[in-house]
Design brief:
By secondary structure, the chain is of the alpha+beta class. It contains nine helices and six strands; from the N terminus they run αβαββαβαααααββα. The protein has a six-stranded mixed β-sheet with strand order 1-6-5-3-4-2. Helix 4 packs antiparallel against helix 5. The protein starts with a helix and ends with a helix.
Length: 199
Amino acid sequence: MVILTTTLVAVVGFRVYSTNHPKLPAPEKVKASRQDVLRGGAHFLSEPTGKWLLLEFASYQCPACSQTHAKLASFLGDHQNLTYGLILFPLRQHRLAMPATEIAETSQLSGNFWQANTLLWKLGAKLTLPSLALVTSELGVSPSQLRAAKKAVERRLVDGQKLASILHLQSTPSFYLANPDGEVFSIADLDQVELVMGN
């Protein structure tokens, strides 16, 4: 009875949201599992156990991704029951997204991914080859380290691409919520998080 009631509330909530936000698609359950999400090469801010997972696919030269990152810390502070995961998904039209991704992923090997991620998002529209060189210098990432990490970086990117294929990813940023029961929902933006979680 509890499960039926929860499902009914969720379905009604989705319909109401769709009516009130006609420009955004309503949240939708997708054909992927929580385990698929965990195997997708994401970087998690905390251990992804027993909590709701908020997963984002992002590309460093994506303006909308930069806007999301600017409000993300505040959002996560208000949602302590979420574990945030980021999958770097450099798009081909973003010429500098791949070198930026390689810097971030190489930094992961020395435990500095989130520092690198913050520095790279701060560049925003100022993302250039010279600015990337300054970031690598600040992080202490050398050209030899970037070369040595290339295969590990490629493996993580392939994991992300496999998950993106399962999810039929169309663009960045793209968001997904995985509940503790293993279900995964696509959401159009962060405003839909509480709707899916039933708050």
